[in-house]
Design brief:
single chain; mainly alpha; 71% helix
Length: 132
């Protein structure tokens, strides 16, 4: 049953996205090119956990900013301060949190079903439901 649970899309999505989410939260406050890259790749992966993030998706993330934010980003590039403004990071992080909440809800709904199955068969749910 444990393997069946681990094969569920809700489990896979959450399991793949959770460490990325932690990395995004950690990278939010650092204003370096490396953390910008980490942030952009992380956002792309959270929005599609099973995918490979490509350059086009990075541009799409950058273009979610308003024109003034994009201009400020261009100035920051010239000044070698990075690409993402704190406002862009906060906005993208809020969207990523929304996605993580959706992954969590889907996983909890699926796990509720498996807890019920376990109880009906006299099995402790902790024995079959993996901990994330």
């Amino acid at each position: 049953v444990r393997k069946e649970i681990q094969a569920l899309p809700s489990y896979k999505n959450y399991a793949q996205a959770a460490p990325i989410w932690s990395s995004l939260v950690d990278a939010e406050g650092r204003d370096t090119k490396a953390s910008d890259l980490n942030f952009i790749y992380g956002i792309g992966k959270i929005f599609d956990p099973g995918s490979v993030v490509r350059e086009g998706e990075m541009v799409m993330v950058e273009n979610t900013a308003s024109l003034p934010q994009r201009l400020l980003s261009a100035v920051n590039i010239v000044n070698d301060k990075g690409r993402l403004t704190p406002e862009m990071r906060s906005s993208l992080l809020a969207e990523a949190q929304s996605r993580m909440n959706a992954f969590n809800t889907a996983l909890r709904d699926d796990m509720r079903s498996y807890r019920g199955i376990a109880r009906r068969y006299g099995i402790n749910p902790r024995d079959i439901i993996p901990k994330l």
